[in-house]
Amino acid sequence: YQKELTTSIADEFSSIINLSIQDPVQQKAMDFLNELVNIYNTNGKNDKKAIADRTAAFIDDRIADIYSDLSEADQSAQDFKSDRGLTDIQSQSNINLNVSAANQQELQNAQIQLQIANSVSDELESQEGYGILPSNIGLADASITSTTARYNQLVLERERLLKSSNEKNPVIVNIDEQLENLKKSMQSSLNSMSNNLNLRVNNLSSQLATINSTIYSAPRNERALREITRKKQTVEGLYLYLLQKREEAQIAYASASPNSKIVDAAFPASKFPVAPKKSIIYLAALILGLLIPAGLI
User: Fold this and answer.
1) Do 244 and 65 form a contact (C-beta atoms < 8 A)?
2) How far is CA 289 from CA 87, 276, 277, 286, 296, in A?
3) pTM exceeds 0.70 for this model
4) Per-residue pLDDT band at 167 (split at 50, 70, 90)
């Protein structure tokens, strides 16, 4: 069937592909083409859903871990206020938060990126064999995002091939080599990104400490409360961010669409058989019918 299948594009710059096949049974050829496209679209939807499932599971694990940190931060703030008899905490911390708002936002974003990068790196190192990695979780590095997408594509292709072959198949061996190279590339990129983010977090923390010490002089309770609030905001920001990403992953799962759209279902190219050509056979028979007797005579 692969040898008989013919593909062509409708026009030079068109995105429409024509599929055709010749078969002695017209209906069988039409059924084959329709089912071929159906399976192709089904595989595409399953691939997208598999990636969305893995991403959602990864985010759920992170949310479970961060929820305990958020509860701990809330409890620390409550205990601090109760022990020191603080009531109007918001008005006491507004000045400090307004002064360092821009620097604090940058620091929070850098910490979120660092935690996500470390989580993905840990996920990659803990993999036994090759499995789907979470994608579209907010990493700012475009090269890591594209490498992850390519890695997931190869993993899905490898799993499909293993259904009808084994790991010694040359094609699967080649895919394993590509996956190993992508793993090393992603690990190197993640390590480099983590190092850069660590430097950025340290620099921003130093800047924030300098700003807070030079612009205002806060009482001891206010400084302690600011540290608790900062930790709480960082954890809360990451928690809300992951909730948003989980919702996006669920939407991606629910709205997974096929890779292609059927313009026309399979239909007969001709009302009459295209082979063998009767006119040529009749012509050949006529010529031979004249030549053979003439030759004998």
Assistant:
1) no
2) 114, 20, 18, 5, 11
3) no
4) confident
